């Protein structure tokens, strides 16, 4: 059965398209544009789920939301490819970064995005808030300086989850060549054929 992906432009849902391409699961994309004034998701998504958020998938009569939950669902559906490694420590790293992406890293990045849209006060607040983001970026750099992927030697769903916040950080939160291991990781994921195929399916994406 074909998975339906309700895909919002320039959003977290690009990760789901990438994972589906990696797992070679059949899917159909239904694209949604943001409101040009508010940059929020359109009301049409609320007709599918009360939260009206993307990513959202439909599969076998189910409607699922929340990127991490969708990633876990698809990994299971894909016979364990991109799943946690067998080694206990690597499996724990997988689980940690699967949740860290949205639980710890994305919130301060979202605050910076909001502040960037506030004139005068926003610039001052950004200067004070940036050090909080830098703590996270420095942590990520120390991890990727010792291993190629977030769970260890193999790409997993943890890397799928970490892609959007680090792409956003490169775009608007100071991630640059001063953190070479993280930049090299971004270059590796962007070079993957499945990633490029997902971009073609999802349409314009500001962070790749």
From TrEMBL:
Catalytic activity entry: RX + glutathione = an S-substituted glutathione + a halide anion + H(+)
InterPro entries for the chain: Glutathione-S-Trfase_C-like (IPR010987), Glutathione-S-Trfase_C_sf (IPR036282), Glutathione_S-Trfase (IPR040079), Glutathione_S-Trfase_N (IPR004045), GST_C (IPR004046), Thioredoxin-like_sf (IPR036249)
Residue ranges of every copy of the GST N-terminal domain listed in the record: 1-82
Regions annotated as coiled coil: none
One GO term describing the cellular component: cytoplasm
Keywords recorded for this protein, A-Z: Transferase
Enzyme class: transferase
Family of this protein: Belongs to the GST superfamily.
Name under which the protein is recorded: glutathione transferase
